[in-house]
Design goal:
GMP Synthetase, Chain A, domain 3, 3-stranded mixed β-sheet, globular, alpha/beta, Rossmann fold, 6-stranded mixed β-sheet
């Protein structure tokens, strides 16, 4: 047929794929394609774009990559799968994952939509940062809170992204009003930055990308053990220690054991004495001292 020597493969059994890859590389070299060394070692930052159906997730991806690759429609549920696209920004590679809109379980009737939700949750698990898209017209619903719980439980970086601000009549007034609603409805997300955008008009997208790079830096920040020990002693002295009857909580030591997400382990005499309010106090003090803006912090309390 004039196409040269055929390459026999079996996609099902992965037979002949190495030969196929090597032939592709050889042909690219014949056409003078060169590997770009500068991008070879760049680490990807996976970002999942989550939210209820019809909040503009696909429109946002199209705007960020500056192409109309994804189908946009006012009909909820147009996106059925999780689709990845890559964007190079400030010497970083951002892997944008557009997810199907996640609904409450009671609303999931079709088998196809069940799989869409599973893919969406997998995308959150695989990501490091999530852009939580909220429709500024519809506001926050209980479904929105269900969606963000998946990200919180997995200690992700979170950017609250309010979309469709091109519908605001008085931008500053409606922005302030929406911020008040967010503070009231989401007291458990004080660390998450709020960015107001219009994906359709491509407004404030640079700010959205800049904040995502900042969050990535904070997620990879590590505190030296000596510094953290001194800090821990200071905050223990500042407030009353939890107690139960005659038993008093004692924190013997604390260290940062991991990054991405920032993970702290505290060795105590009895972890059942750690009240949620004291856990929140420690987290607030860590943020006040070191930052960790835009990312959840993982804290573990272990009996010594």
């Amino acid at each position: 047929m004039g196409f040269g020597q055929p390459i026999p493969i079996s996609a099902l059994h992965a037979f002949g794929l190495d030969h196929l890859k090597s032939e592709v590389v050889n042909h690219l070299k014949d056409f003078d394609f060169q590997e770009q060394e500068s991008k070879k070692n760049l680490k990807e930052i996976p970002i999942a774009i989550i939210g209820r159906p019809n909040t503009g997730k696909s429109t946002l991806v199209n705007a960020l990559i500056n192409e109309d690759k994804l189908i946009m429609s006012d009909i909820p549920g147009t996106t059925r799968d999780s689709i990845s696209h890559y964007l190079e920004y400030n010497d970083k590679i951002l892997k944008l994952i557009d997810t199907a809109g996640i609904r409450r379980k009671g609303k999931i009737r079709e088998i196809l939509e069940r799989f869409s939700v599973m893919r969406g949750l997998n995308a959150i698990n695989e990501s490091e940062i999530v852009f939580w898209l909220i429709d500024s017209v519809e506001g926050i619903t209980s479904q929105d809170k269900h969606v963000i719980q998946f990200a919180l439980e997995n200690h992700k970086g979170i950017v609250i992204t309010v979309n469709k601000t091109d519908t605001f009549e008085d931008y500053q007034e409606e922005k302030n009003k929406f911020l008040n609603i967010l503070r009231r409805e989401l007291p458990f997300l004080p660390f998450a930055p709020v960015i107001f955008i219009s994906a359709l008009k491509r407004k404030n997208l640079t700010e959205l990308l800049n904040i995502s790079l900042q969050i990535d830096e904070h997620r990879k920040m590590r505190i030296p053990d000596d510094d953290f020990s001194l800090f821990l002693q200071k905050i223990i002295m500042q407030t009353a220690i939890p107690r139960k009857g005659k038993k008093v909580l004692k924190i013997h030591s604390g260290t940062q054991d991991g990054i991405n997400p920032p993970t702290f382990t505290f060795h105590v005499n009895d972890r059942t004495l750690v009240h949620f309010s004291y856990r929140r106090y420690i987290e607030n003090q860590i943020r006040q001292e070191y930052g960790f803006n835009g990312t959840a912090i993982k804290m573990l309390f272990k009996n010594k």
